[in-house]
């Protein structure tokens, strides 16, 4: 799943350190879970009857089960379904008992069920809501303005139980035979191809799909509606990109991506994609997951799959490539081999995130995707340094914690750790280990221990000894570099400690850290840093030496003055990833209280002549954070003036309009600079954005797609009522999610308090799809410059808002409404709200968000006076 995460990493465990590292391999009987393992499914035969007008469903389910030991009851998952009957074999009826809180149903039988194979027949009914979880509907308008309805499923993490009773835990794999009664004119899509269609009454048809491979319940899919496709082949596999009819040509780019990616993965994993077809399906509007890796039937929010040459920008092109690569990687890592339990979610998500960038870099090397992953690294480390972080492999006790596990630790930290391990053992050994892993665990489940064993076998190294410290412990290592020069002999000594932020009592942790040392023109040195310091000789006392060369390691670096001085002097000679790494680590040291802010700020003059987007993205993120911290103080105006002066030369180089033959990176950097200058109050940029917006309203073709986001963002932030109304109208008239979100986001960042209130009201007006409400609220708290007001408004309206939200979004609602605050009173109000204490997942996400807010408040007390002093000297 490609979750659109707006918050920092969530907290899913207390601060306990694992008693022992290096997890064992997959063992079904000892895999965590809530369901008994005495009865396991082998085959689900599910017949669904859907009524898309009354929005109801009826199901007839025959499950072939293996009873592993005699039992008198069978416990399964279900939520929101009414079981009419449950019969074992030829006629023994069960007494049915629902536990809605536990999301289970118990089937009690009068006589013990003997061990062996049995058939369980269940008839049930349910509803089809418009909250995007389980089976649901989405209504949308076609480009011609016609109202249409589509049926969609979204089951990860624990929502398959909303469509059928079953064993809705990942280790309970089974085959599926699905049929569905649907409107005659609906196109039906599922994991497997259609094998037959028969009439089912007036205007209806019954569609039968082929039997699936063994897979987890959350990977089953059913999508039906008025759709059309563009088609091709990737090797022997039929591939298609589906969209609402009339938009199918916008799937051409995604189709071209899949033609490259699928054969590449076939070769990389050493196991051929096993299904006969692979569908990529664009869901219009109401989709909460971003993208979902249903085996053979991947679903996407339409802006993550469809590319319109007239309105889509460079960021959309990149998003489509990475999302398609991510979800296709899941067809192996997640679908073919599934994590045993949600405590190892990172095996799915961290790996797919790493693979999306590996594939994107392979086919688009000019995009420099690896240096630009610095931003994701900073986000992961930013949360991982806090006391409310959690290990990558985290205890997951219930459903609320499972949904909360989809965070930046599972995704971004997971990706960074995998990249570090690959860099350490070498890409060929890593690939060979993945082939061993896939072949050994296909159609089954695995743990991190299984992955380490396969990589160790391929590389001849004890991978678990290094990797488990990063996956089974929370936190970020800090590598300290101290230089000495005596009698003409120079060296640096490396030591490690734990890097923490706002943690008064951090647990003492140690890692075995692969460290690459070097500089341009010098052969790299590779060391493993454990508890014993490591000393490396230097050719001279003033030699340049950087730790984490290439930024493949997951750690912060702190240099003493003698080591930092030559790095600063030779800053421009390093590659983009290393320049961004030096800036990012130096700012982080200030955040942690380990270095003054001036040390970071003194590096900014080295950006004169800087043209690389990765370096600018790091700089823009830190300047934006400092801007937030100076809100309401005289230092903000000074900081903004400095920001404008710093960014102006690079913007002058790029200009407003694309130049013939310019690089993809320049095209991508331009909107970032325009947005930043607009937020910093540049009068010329603001005036030009306003002029171009007026021209856009009069003639949409007048504004290049890549400029639309920054222009409407600047206009939205400074909007008056009339401009706000125009943005709203433009959003309502747009037919694609990409265009709608462009204008809805511009509305959300309006700074006028009266307009902020209108934005929150609008978010629950029905004009914004349910799956996008929390996203819009997140943009409001981040962009309106008044997060505390946003929180109070959302808190007051949350009862109404929650009626529109799926389970995953329920826990994120209030944290999304205040995560940009630096007000301790807001943090306390968040923790005091009963909704944030309603489940383990909700509580943990709220605690992490409150921690970030309180950290921001403390940081503000240090940043403002430090900025005033430093800027005064400029």
Give the arrangement of secondary structure elements.
Blueprint: E1 39-51, E2 56-67, E3 71-77, E4 82-88, E5 92-93, E6 95-99, E7 104-113, E8 116-127, E9 134-141, E10 147-154, E11 175-183, E12 187-190, E13 194-199, E14 204-209, E15 222-225, E16 227-234, E17 237-244, H1 252-269, E18 277-283, E19 291-292, E20 297-301, H2 314-330, E21 337-339, H3 345-363, H4 374-384, H5 399-404, H6 409-425, H7 427-441, E22 444-446, H8 448-459, H9 463-471, E23 476-486, E24 489-499, E25 513-519, E26 522-529, E27 534-538, E28 546-547, E29 556-559, H10 561-569, H11 576-591, H12 597-601, H13 613-629, H14 634-654, H15 664-679, H16 683-698, H17 705-717, H18 721-733, H19 737-748, H20 753-763, H21 773-783, H22 787-802, H23 807-810, H24 813-818, H25 824-832, H26 840-872
Helix pairs in contact: 1-2, 2-3, 3-6, 4-6, 6-7, 6-9, 7-8, 8-9, 11-13, 13-14, 13-15, 14-15, 14-26, 15-17, 16-17, 17-19, 18-19, 19-21, 20-21, 20-22, 21-22, 25-26
Relevant terms:
26 helices, 23% strand, 5-stranded mixed beta sheet, 8-stranded mixed beta sheet, Neutral Protease, domain 2, 874 residues, globular, Immunoglobulin-like, alpha+beta, 29 strands
Report on this model:
Among the domains are: 35-168 and 175-213 and 216-330, tricorn interacting facor f3 domain (Immunoglobulin-like, Sandwich), CATH 2.60.40.1730; 337-471, Neutral Protease, domain 2, CATH 1.10.390; 476-588, Sandwich (Immunoglobulin-like). The chain has 874 residues and is an alpha+beta fold. Helix 2 (314-330) packs across helix 3 (345-363) and helix 8 runs antiparallel to helix 9. Residues 5-20 have low confidence and may be disordered. The strands form 8 sheets. Strands 5-4-8-2-1-11-14-13 form an 8-stranded mixed sheet, with no helix packed on it. Strands 16-17-18-20-19 form a 5-stranded mixed sheet, covered by helices on one side. Strand 6 (95-99) and strand 7 form a beta hairpin. It is built from 26 helices and 29 strands. The longest helix is centred in the last third of the chain and has 33 residues, at 840-872. The relative contact order is 0.09.
């Amino acid at each position: 799943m490609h979750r659109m995460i707006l918050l920092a990493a969530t907290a899913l465990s207390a601060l306990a350190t694992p008693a022992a590292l290096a997890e064992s391999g997959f063992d079904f009987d000892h895999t965590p879970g809530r369901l008994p393992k005495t009865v396991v499914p082998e085959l689900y035969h599910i017949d669904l009857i859907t009524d898309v007008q009354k929005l109801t469903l009826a199901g007839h389910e025959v499950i072939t089960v293996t009873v592993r030991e005699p039992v008198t009851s069978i416990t399964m998952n279900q939520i929101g379904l009414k079981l009419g009957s449950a019969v074992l074999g030829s006629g023994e009826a069960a007494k049915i008992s629902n536990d809605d809180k536990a999301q289970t149903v118990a089937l009690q039988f009068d006589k013990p069920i003997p061990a062996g194979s049995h058939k369980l027949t269940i008839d049930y009914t349910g509803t089809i809501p418009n909250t995007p979880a389980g089976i649901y509907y989405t209504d949308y308008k076609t480009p011609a303005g016609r109202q249409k309805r589509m049926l969609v499923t979204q089951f990860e993490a624990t929502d398959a139980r909303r469509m059928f009773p079953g064993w809705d835990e990942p280790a309970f794999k089974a085959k599926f035979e699905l049929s569905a009664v649907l409107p005659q004119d609906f196109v039906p899509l599922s994991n497997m191809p259609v094998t037959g269609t028969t009439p089912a009454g007036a205007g209806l048809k019954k569609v039968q799909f082929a039997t699936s491979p063994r897979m987890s319940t959350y990977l089953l899919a059913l999508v039906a509606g008025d759709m059309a496709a563009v088609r091709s082949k990737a090797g022997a596999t039929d591939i298609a990109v589906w969209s609402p009819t009339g938009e199918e040509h916008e799937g051409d780019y995604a189709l071209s991506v899949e033609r490259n990616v699928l054969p590449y993965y076939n070769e990389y994993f050493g196991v051929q994609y096993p299904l006969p077809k692979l569908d990529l399906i664009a869901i219009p509007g109401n989709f909460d997951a971003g993208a979902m890796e249903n085996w053979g039937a991947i679903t996407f929010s339409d802006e993550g799959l469809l590319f319109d040459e007239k309105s889509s920008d460079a960021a959309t092109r990149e998003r489509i490539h990475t999302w398609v690569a991510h979800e296709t990687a899941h067809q192996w890592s997640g679908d073919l081999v599934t994590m045993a339990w949600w405590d190892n979610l990172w095996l799915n998500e961290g790996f797919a995130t790493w693979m999306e960038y590996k594939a994107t870099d392979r086919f688009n090397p000019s995009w420099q995707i690896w240096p630009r992953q610095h931003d994701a690294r900073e986000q992961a480390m930013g949360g991982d340094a806090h006391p409310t972080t959690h290990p990558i492999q985290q205890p997951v006790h219930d459903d609320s914690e499972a949904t909360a596990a989809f965070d930046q630790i599972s995704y971004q930290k997971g990706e960074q750790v995998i990249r570090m391990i690959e860099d350490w053992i070498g890409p060929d050994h890593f690939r060979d280990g993945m082939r061993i892993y896939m072949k050994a665990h296909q159609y089954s489940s695995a743990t991190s221990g299984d992955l380490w064993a396969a990589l160790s076998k391929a590389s001849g190294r004890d991978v678990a000894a290094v990797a488990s410290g990063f996956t089974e412990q929370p936190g970020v290592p800090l590598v300290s570099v101290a230089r000495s020069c005596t009698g003409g002999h120079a060296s640096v000594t490396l030591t490690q400690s734990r890097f923490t932020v706002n943690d008064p009592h951090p647990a003492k942790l140690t890692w075995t850290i692969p460290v690459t040392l070097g500089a341009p023109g010098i052969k790299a040195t590779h060391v493993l840093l454990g508890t014993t310091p490591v000393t490396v000789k230097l050719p001279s006392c003033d030699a340049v030496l950087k730790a984490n060369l290439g930024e493949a390691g997951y750690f912060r670096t702190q240099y003493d003055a003698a080591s930092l001085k030559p790095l600063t002097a030779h800053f421009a000679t390093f590659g983009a990833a290393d320049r961004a790494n030096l800036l990012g680590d130096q700012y982080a040291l200030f955040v942690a209280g380990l270095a003054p802010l001036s040390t970071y700020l003194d590096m900014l003059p080295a950006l004169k002549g800087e043209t690389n987007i990765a370096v600018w993205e790091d700089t823009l993120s830190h300047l934006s954070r400092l801007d937030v911290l100076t809100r309401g103080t005289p230092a903000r105006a000074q900081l903004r003036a400095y920001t404008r002066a710093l960014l102006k030369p690079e913007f002058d180089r790029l200009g407003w309009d694309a130049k013939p033959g310019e690089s993809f990176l320049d095209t991508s950097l331009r909107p970032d600079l325009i947005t930043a200058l607009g937020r910093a109050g540049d009068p010329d940029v603001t005036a030009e954005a306003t002029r171009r917006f007026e021209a856009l309203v009069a003639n949409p073709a007048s504004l290049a797609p890549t400029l639309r986001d920054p222009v409407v963002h600047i206009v939205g932030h400074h909007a008056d009522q009339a401009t706000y109304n125009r943005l709203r109208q433009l959003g309502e008239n747009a037919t694609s999610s990409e265009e709608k979100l462009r204008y809805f986001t511009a509305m959300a960042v309006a700074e006028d308090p009266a307009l902020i209130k209108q934005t929150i009201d609008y978010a629950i007006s029905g004009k914004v799809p349910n799956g996008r409400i929390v996203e819009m609220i997140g943009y409001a708290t981040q962009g309106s410059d008044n997060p505390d007001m946003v929180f109070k408004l959302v808190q007051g309206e949350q009862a109404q808002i929650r009626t529109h939200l799926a389970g995953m979004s329920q826990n994120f609602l209030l944290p999304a409404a205040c995560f940009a605050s630096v007000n301790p009173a807001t943090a306390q109000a968040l923790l005091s709200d009963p909704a944030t204490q309603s489940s383990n997942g909700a509580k943990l996400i709220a605690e992490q968000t409150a921690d970030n807010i309180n950290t921001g408040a403390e940081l503000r007390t240090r940043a403002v006076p430090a900025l005033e002093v430093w800027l005064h000297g400029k």
